Amino acid sequence: MNTIQHLSTEAPSVLGGHRLLKSSSCSYFVTTAHGFLLARRMLSGISQPEKYRRILVNSYNRKQSNSSNTTVKTSTKLPSVDHLTPSDAPSVSNAEGREDAASSSQWKERKDDGVDVRAGFSSGKDKKPALLTDSFEYFAFLRRLKRTAEKLLSSFPLAIAELAIIGALCAVGTLIEQGQSREFYLQKYSEDWAFGLFNGEWVLNLCLDHVYTAPYFLGLLALLAASLIACTSSRQIPLVKIARRWRFVNSGASISKLDFHETLPHARLADLAVLLAGDKYQVFMRGPSLYAFKGLAGRFAPIGVHAALLLIMGGATYSAIGGYHGTIMVPQGLNFMVGEAMYPAGFLSQPPDSFDTEVHINKFTIETYPNGEVSQFRTDLSLFNLRGQEVSRKVISVNDPLRYGGFTMYQTDWGISTIQIHVDGEGPFNLVAAPLQTGDNKLFGTFLPIGDNGLAGAKGISMLARDLQSVVIYDSNGAFAGVRRSGSEKPITVDGVTIIIDDIIGSTGLEMKLDPGVPIVYAGFAALMLTTVLSYLCHLQVWALQVDDSLVVGAKSNRNRAEFAEDLGKLLNFVPEIVRDRSMENIAPIISSTNEELSMQGTSAKMDNESSRS
Amino acid sequence: MIYLYVEQIFVYISFLILFLVTLLNLINFFFEIDKINHFSNNGMKFAFLCTTGFLTTRFFQTQHLPLGNLYESLMFLSWGFSFLYLISNVKNKKRLSAPVLATSALLVHAFAVLSLPHKMRESMSLVPALQSQWLMMHVSTTLISYATLLFGSLLAIVLLSIFHGEIKRYCVGNLTNNFEFRHKNYPLISKNFPKQIITESFSYSLFLNSRKCQLIHLLDKWTYQAISLGFSFLTIGIISGAVWANEAWGSYWSWEPKETWALITWLIYAIYLHIRINKKWMGKGSAMAASMGFFLVWICFLGVNLLGVGLHNYGWLI
């Protein structure tokens, strides 16, 4: 009997009371830090609740007493998540429930005073001395300007329209081939295309040949960036501030205004608190009201998405105006200076010292699969500094570039520079090869003149090569003469001349880039990947109020409302209904569970039943 | 040669089983017979295993993930659809996503097996540009994102086509107890004010429980979940592609047709997610955005390859 009475007076202390804590596995408490702190407080004994009761009583009588300034300050401090300590959210036993009606109005007043930031702001403004009115008005004007700009830019239809138009322009850029010569467009889109409404002239005038660098496209991207900034600062950040500020609700009316609300008759707040804490909510209780939330990251993540997009755009802009790039085709065995091959991309480009290195191509090879297809291109590079010392040596291949001094060298292309032959035992002669076909199927050719007919009527032997392995030889009349592999030392006699193909010397196509914006863009990429995944977390908030015997529960979520309603409904099914046994009304209530039994509720009920029988 | 036979066996068996499963699901959709559920689930599991078998044989044959050409990509996409089928099977038994997913898996599989010329089905060795670790991550995440986005968009198309005129009345936003919004449509309820909480929710539940409303609600919920998952994967896929391009060629974005269309797809699904937040446009507007996304994904996946230009034309139909 004693234990039951102990339970009834102590029961509403948060999360179920001493007995439950000692008997259960305490898993509910350790899931939340707050729960842990409350558990610690509860276990430490009975003296601490007294202290908190005193603080509450003082704050209730705030209007009357002016002496307890410190306690008033702590209780009127704006409650926020990171300042949460056990002293801020004390539990009040039901014995003081009768003070609820009197205190609720005071709580509301306190809430209004504390929460109204704007009022505090304006009162602060009025106190400014007269000297600063001019600059003050200037700042006010700026603030008003900023606010109208924000309101314009963060408008929802504008954002959707921006995204849609950028998408449409991107699509146009894929339909019309980009970056070709003027004649190409005039010829391809001739007058009778689309009934004369659309022709090559239109393409060129509307900058459709370079859509992605056209001024209107870049302007749209800048507008999108401005909209992102405006939306984040004017809509998302205030929402986060409001969401982080937890507020206890003290009237059933405001709870019923929420998206999801229910009334549970004969239920206890503490039971709901336990269930919510078990479902990974952070639970706070003050008096008869409860506030719980979960998934606060879901509020921050959309801001993170916008910030990541801005980072990416900023980094890309920096790359576009502050980088260097260059392409060069170097025959094997020759050198080039890095700085000579690089061209600045924009006005912010600063050449680094490493541009003074000399690059020497030691060897260029093409590896093939057994079936003859190309498997990899490899270039053996040496980098020498101004003093002639070798500072770097690496064999680069297609997915494996060379990084040195801020710039990167990629293997992107290849060609044939010369074909080395012995003619009639003399040589070796280097015949320069010219590209006859470029692109995927390369074809290089060279020409060995025979006889002395001068330039106009030069006749000779043609040699064609598709790769670094073999050469196809044609005679002076264009007839096929034979195929020789380089390095095979097998002579071929064409038109009375004996030729031995020594070697086919390739040239490597290198692309060099210096991109200062890459770290920024990579950071933006990582942030975007992370925040896109995180922003699917729902920020769920639950308010509950104990009104006499029943519990009014309301909830709100910032996305995915319907499923949240279902889940919360299922959770509410677990809240036990307290049935008062009429015959034992004055002695003690008996707790029975509805629907399914939670282990915690089960053990507590069992223990109560056992102790009541004893 | 043994690889070839094993592959063919896997492919044809999975094709047959997918065909049967699709038939069963469509029959089940119209006449609800319980046994069919059981058969179709087991059948799909078997088809999933066969497709996985095909992909693993390709892996052993070529020593790289089977994602090199169009044939393998399509089989991977079909695998993705059957995987989604099995996942949605875990969540709830009675569902609308089953016929949609089974049909998609079958159609993609059929296209790969029946329409591609034999030469394109051979496993080819990778060109130098594809010999990278990034291949696995970029292509696989992008293909999985295509599968989930296509699934979500198909559900949105279903929603639009079935409930063309009525979405606004039963609108998705209506499912919450949003006071003012509801009162615009049902002025008769506005008499009851917040004091009578219980009666209000009771009268509201009359509408909530109507079968049409439930169906709209379910379709919208599944669309949202599928598209949000696909959107995350698409983001990761695009970004990994950009980083790979930077490692291989020095520029993370070169406005290439495939890249650009992936970005356009990303934009349309971003539009979908944003419309879904707006109370005025959600419901019908978001379903329209998601439906458009369906076509954009197909253009991005297949249409760009048919153009024949750019770096991604490894699998164009000649």
Characterization of this structure:
- The complex is a heterodimer of chains A (614) and B (318).
- With 614 residues, chain A is α+β, with helices and mostly antiparallel strands.
- Chain A contains 20 helices and 23 strands.
- In chain A, 41% of the residues lie in helices and 25% in strands.
- In chain A, strands 4, 6, 10, 11, 12, 18 and 19 form a seven-stranded antiparallel beta sheet that branches. In chain A, strands 1-21-20-3-2 form a five-stranded antiparallel beta sheet.
- Chain B is mostly helical and 318 residues long.
- Chain B is built from eleven helices and no strands.
From the structure above, extract its key features.
heterodimer; A: 614 residues; alpha+beta; 7-stranded antiparallel beta sheet; 5-stranded antiparallel beta sheet; disordered N terminus; disordered C terminus; B: 318 residues; mainly alpha; 11 helices; flat
Concise summary:
The complex is a heterodimer of chains A (about 625) and B (about 325). Chain A is α+β, with helices and mostly antiparallel strands and about 625 residues long.
Task: Itemize the secondary structure elements and their pairings.
The complex is a heterodimer of chains A (about 625) and B (about 325).
Chain A: H1 2-10, H2 18-23, H3 27-31, H4 33-43, H5 47-60, H6 69-76, H7 100-115, H8 117-126, H9 133-153, H10 156-175, H11 182-188, H12 200-205, H13 215-244, H14 252-256, E1 260-264, H15 269-278, E2 282-286, E3 289-294, H16 297-322, E4 324-331, E5 335-337, H17 338-341, E6 343-344, E7 358-368, E8 374-384, E9 390-396, E10 402-404, E11 407-423, E12 426-432, E13 434-437, E14 443-450, E15 459-465, E16 470-474, E17 480-485, E18 492-494, E19 497-514, H18 518-534, E20 540-547, E21 550-557, H19 561-573, E22 578-579, E23 590-591, H20 599-613
Antiparallel strand pairs in A: 1-21, 2-3, 3-20, 4-6, 4-19, 5-7, 7-8, 8-9, 10-11, 11-12, 11-19, 13-14, 14-15, 15-16, 16-17, 18-19, 20-21, 22-23
Helix pairs in contact in A: 9-13, 10-13, 13-16, 16-18
Chain B: H1 2-30, H2 34-62, H3 70-91, H4 97-115, H5 118-121, H6 134-162, H7 179-185, H8 197-208, H9 211-249, H10 257-275, H11 284-307
